[in-house]
Amino acid sequence: MMSLLESGTLFLTLGIFLYGILYFSFFREKNNQKISKGILFFRNNFVRVIAGLSLFAIIELTTRNIHHILFAFLTVVLPVAVLNLVAALKMDKLTEGEVNDYRVGYLQNNWSDKSYKYLQSKDWDNTVFKKVHESGAVKLSTVEANPSVIVSVSANRAQHELSLFHRLKENYNVKLICMDANNAKDQIDEVDQDSRFIYLDGDRDAFNLPAILDEIQIGQVDIILDKKGALWHNSKKVDTFFEIAYNKLSPGGVVIIDGSQQNKVLTRLSFLYYQLFRTIIYPSELSTLNKIEGAIGSGSFADQHFERIDAGEGIFRTVIFKKKH
């Protein structure tokens, strides 16, 4: 006769199994939009995580009786194996590109807005601006004839850039260029006529920065911003990015990236929560620094040609790379 713990485990895993089968079988289209392969992929991984935790809990809580352990193993593994098979049959491929699809009807749609609202609830823009200013690593011009040129290579909807522009324009002479901006026109109508704010719509690859700057007749820039953009998506091209940045930065110019310090357990839980409820309760993505840290160590182009300065801490930490020569 099964113990209470075994019965509970069986009930839990069968519930997950049935939910998965129903989800994969009947979720075809919604409002004539294809269901994201990324959703299926993440739901499948969610099942795996729950199953793994269940197995771990059972092994820890039950006696070392081999019967209990084998029962727990089979109860968890068999349904998950079937779900994996069903998921694989229903997806052409499981790629990061599919997972990170931002089109309407897909998992990551409106991610930018949701992420921005979460960060605003934490006063992120104000705090980061203050910490970067306090670092003393960034010098901005107050001379009317010689503006500091700032380029954001991954502006997306340009919310943070617009917020930054409003903070700077009253006290400094700056020109802010937003690259790789998508669907941001409504966000920036209020500054659209301000020649100090340049909005480049569409897909603009940061690795084509020299050509893009030539297009708008900009020679060198003073600050390059990259928040979960070019480097985040191209962690194998870090040296190339910094070499391009080095060549386009003015003397003493800087590259600024996000470097959020996050609790790994909370990050994972927040990630799972978002898959279920589409709500961000804690940063659920790795920072750019986390993505590229192994590529900016000793001997790297960034290490040899830039001075690293950390500003702020926790989710407010940014990392400043100041051009050495």
UniProtKB/TrEMBL annotation:
Keywords, alphabetical: Membrane, Transmembrane, Transmembrane helix
Membrane-spanning parts: 6-26, 46-63, 69-89
Keyword Membrane: yes
Record's keyword annotation contains Transmembrane helix: yes
Protein name in the entry: Class I SAM-dependent methyltransferase
Organism: Paenibacillus xylanilyticus
Lineage: Bacteria, Bacillati, Bacillota, Bacilli, Bacillales
